[in-house]
Each structure stands twice: as C-alpha cells, then as structure tokens.
Amino acid sequence: MTRAEIDVDDLLKIVLGLAVVWLLLEILGTVLDLTFALLDALPTLIVVVIVVLIALRLADRI
After folding, report:
1. What's the N-to-C CA distance of the chain in angstroms?
2. SS3 of residue 4 by DSSP
C-alpha cells in the first residue's frame, strides 16, 4: 500500500480523532487553570471565613 492508496474516509477519521484529542486537551487545560486559580485564592478565602466567624461571634450570632 502506498501513500496515494489511502482512503478519504480513513483520512477523515484521523483528522476527526486529532480534533477530538485537541478539544479534550483544551478542556483539561481549562479545568486545571481553574483548579490552580482556586488553590491560589484559598488562603484569602480562609482569612475571609475567619473574619466572618469572628464578626459573627462578637455580634452573638453564633
């Protein structure tokens, strides 16, 4: 089998497979970016929670 004897359907399947892999990698990259953004914001969120809990305690709401 030479290069010229490959079917168009086979080439389309290869292109479709590569496009699916590319989309999956883009989705995975976005999920990882969001995860790391949340992890970067975690210390700030902890401080906000502590401040809110202290304020509620002082206001006798807890």
Report:
1. 78
2. helix
Q: Which phi-psi region, left, alpha or beta, contains residue 7 (left: φ > 0; alpha: ψ -120 to 50)?
A: beta
What is the model's pTM?
0.60
Enumerate residues 6+ apart whose C-beta is below 8 A from 56.
62
Report the b/e string of 36-56 with b at 16+ CB within 10 A: eeeeeeeeeeeeeeeeeeeee
Q: Encoding tokens for residue 37?
A: 């953004």
**The two structure tokens encoding residue 44:** 């700030």
Per-residue confidence (pLDDT) for residue 51, from 0 to 100: 94
